[in-house]
Amino acid sequence: MLKDFVKAVEPEEEEFKKELKEAQDKLFAYQMQIKEAKLPVMVIFEGWGSAGKGSVIGRVIRSIDPRFFKVRTMKAPTAEEKRYPFLHRYLLEIPEAGKFTFFDTYWMNEVTTALVEDDLDDAIYKQRVRSINTTERSLTDNGYLVMKFFFHISKKEQKRRLDALMADKNTRWRVNRDDLHENKHYKEYLDVFEQYLEDTDRAAAPWYIIDASNKKWAELQVLRYLNQGIETALKNHALAAPIRQNVFPLNHTPKLSEISLDDKTISKEDYDVELDRLQKELSELHNELYRKKIPVIIAYEGWDAAGKGGNIKRITSALDPRGYEVHPIASPEPHEKARHFLWRFWTRLPKDGHIAIFDRTWYGRVMVERLEGFCSENDWQRAYNEMNEFEKELADWGAVVIKFWVQIDSATQLARFTERQNTPEKQWKITDEDWRNREKWDLYEAAVDEMLQKTNTTFAPWYILESNDKRYARIKALKIVVEALRKACKEK
What we know:
50% of the residues lie in helices and 12% in strands. The chain is of the alpha/beta class.
């Protein structure tokens, strides 16, 4: 792309001034349409050191109300940031619906720098590219406009700018060792940039190469493409995105109606013995996974009153409280609802060596949001694949992902609801919404069956906890967690 780049013809001075003013006015007008359409816009600036990315960002944002945009500079990851998945720190910064975020470098810089410095082998590079392409596609499928600009200058022009900055004591600080290294090894960087741009140039989020030899001309080029992108996005914003074919290996999953609950019981004596044994082993494993920096995500879904809370408590009782966090997931807050539906779960991921336990999860997308009409049919149909992709990202990072469905029958739920209703100290556990959801039992069961069938992957499997007998379900969950952590620690 860079090696074959043909520069656009710069307009004559009078025409240039006219077009630039019109482009600035058009962007100013678009910001209100973006707000009304709730269109989130990501504008990513990449390119050579001293190519003028920061200057052009400063020029472009002058056409936008400051309340509608943020500017983020993504520097090299800190030691703390490296304890999370590669995508984590980037996805935390995605904009809310109806707003812009301008990025002075994004994930390209981290990947290409590592390539030049031989810190990425070919397999990891391909994995990073796959993650980036998948995420950018998921963002655009969920209504984001992703505009990517690469600022291109020659080796000679870069050297001239670096020398000028170095010559002035007030600007010398803007030149660092990486900039000088990049210019000295321009050909090597050019090859790496070329490879990355070709590997991540996709229809959902294409690259635009900017002739950055002149800053005003670079601004006009950016405004041309940005306005075109916004215009197209506004026209297509209401269109449904494609439903993608599953490409992940799946385990066989029985329907809930086929799962026997009657014989899944344990005596009080056996329960006490097993609980003590398993919690002691889990406590030891927690120390080992912390030492080996293995992250763990345990996800709970299930019927109301199935016993998720008690199940979680028996696991956390064995853990060092400094090394885990339980996330009770309720309806999304306004700032969460205004972003990609997985954003609020990315923000709750554990760092390596820690455990995150989710009481309700991202699967609400294909259950309550589906059945209550909180998202479109296209949204929840796409979500199966998007959640599989999310969990594959976690598994590739090295996380142990365990998903529990806590199963009871309708009669058991009714008995527990009634007990809660009639017991003053338990009445806080029962709500009108619980009773309303119970009336939709058959609809929820069908939705759960489809969810289990489409997301029971080999790398993030579902486990059914038969919970008519809560003690039985607690011991089964502990056994599964202990076995999974034992296996992960052995393989590390």
